[in-house]
DNA sequence: CTTGAAAAGAACTGCCT
DNA sequence: AGGCAGTTCTTTTCAAG
């Protein structure tokens, strides 16, 4: 954890809404000069709090209309099988996120596909053949809302 | 879906790695002039394919060491109870993502907390008291890997 | 911390192929 | 479509209060 003051939090909150804002605009919104806002952003980057910027892409417009969450239980657990599983799952292009979790499942995957037939292909030929896979449970995404979270 | 050519895909792939790259740098990498690369990016934004840029924040450095995924089954389903649930869940600051899904669960939530005692507080006082909540299942995040996905 | 200023670079525009 | 040249803006750094 890093110690941030209120201005750092306000800066991050503003940037989280729109990461394209200039240091000058942020400073104006918070009563800071452009160099002051800029120095704070640099410091947050140097501290590793702010790790960069990512694109927000519209999967549907890119032709990926189906998003499915998979909960996976491994049949065989152990250090080697975790590594085998992770290596194999990383090679599937349709997998957007791999989450190693503790609980009912061992892994949770976010998978995108063009449509349901395409998803079935991915599931049967790529997911079910992963090393060590036991039970697989699926949830199809209907809609999602991303929120800022308690940051700030 | 939008029709993109290979250059658009290459542009998005490069930007997905680092969204701070300038149009000039992208153009040089792809054999385009700065205005040509810039015009393509503008067009992708206008078409809604590229919906903006978000920050990559380090939750741990911000003091949120615990991330938990919750699978929630509603006890009472129906249009009204879905809306009630969504409105109430949106008011919980610790909830980072609300996913409405089809399958074993009705909703999946990504929740962050400072530590496990803090998570227990959120779970007991905010999640379990949500309107219409039935079963709740939890998975604690150990590690995650985000991949580009099949975009491009 | 601030203001002011200067240099570099990126974004944007118009015109031409 | 793409390139070139030019203008405007932001970013980035520095000096000084």
UniProtKB/TrEMBL annotation, chains A, B:
<dbReference type="InterPro" id="IPR019885">
    <property type="entry name" value="Tscrpt_reg_HTH_AsnC-type_CS"/>
</dbReference>
<keyword id="KW-0238">DNA-binding</keyword>
<dbReference type="Pfam" id="PF13404">
    <property type="entry name" value="HTH_AsnC-type"/>
</dbReference>
<keyword id="KW-0805">Transcription regulation</keyword>
<dbReference type="InterPro" id="IPR000485">
    <property type="entry name" value="AsnC-type_HTH_dom"/>
</dbReference>
<dbReference type="InterPro" id="IPR011008">
    <property type="entry name" value="Dimeric_a/b-barrel"/>
</dbReference>
<keyword id="KW-0804">Transcription</keyword>
<dbReference type="InterPro" id="IPR019887">
    <property type="entry name" value="Tscrpt_reg_AsnC/Lrp_C"/>
</dbReference>
<dbReference type="InterPro" id="IPR036390">
    <property type="entry name" value="WH_DNA-bd_sf"/>
</dbReference>
<feature type="domain" description="HTH asnC-type">
    <location>
        <begin position="4"/>
        <end position="65"/>
    </location>
</feature>
<dbReference type="InterPro" id="IPR019888">
    <property type="entry name" value="Tscrpt_reg_AsnC-like"/>
</dbReference>
<protein>
    <submittedName>
        <fullName>Lrp/AsnC family transcriptional regulator</fullName>
    </submittedName>
</protein>
<dbReference type="Pfam" id="PF01037">
    <property type="entry name" value="AsnC_trans_reg"/>
</dbReference>
<dbReference type="InterPro" id="IPR036388">
    <property type="entry name" value="WH-like_DNA-bd_sf"/>
</dbReference>
């Amino acid at each position: 954890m890093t110690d941030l003051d209120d201005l750092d939090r306000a800066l991050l909150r503003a940037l989280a809404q729109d990461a394209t804002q200039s240091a000058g605009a942020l400073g104006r919104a918070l009563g800071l000069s452009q160099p002051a806002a800029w120095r704070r952003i640099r410091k947050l980057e140097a501290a590793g709090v702010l790790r960069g910027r990512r694109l927000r892409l519209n999967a549907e417009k890119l032709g990926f209309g189906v998003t499915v969450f998979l909960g996976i239980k491994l049949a065989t657990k152990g250090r080697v099988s975790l590594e085998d599983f992770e290596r194999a799952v990383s090679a599937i292009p349709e997998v957007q996120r791999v989450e190693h979790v503790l609980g009912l499942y061992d892994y949770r995957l976010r998978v995108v596909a063009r449509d349901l037939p395409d998803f079935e292909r991915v599931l049967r030929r790529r997911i079910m053949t992963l090393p060590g896979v036991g039970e697989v449970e699926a949830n199809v995404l209907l809609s999602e809302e991303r929120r800022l979270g308690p940051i700030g």
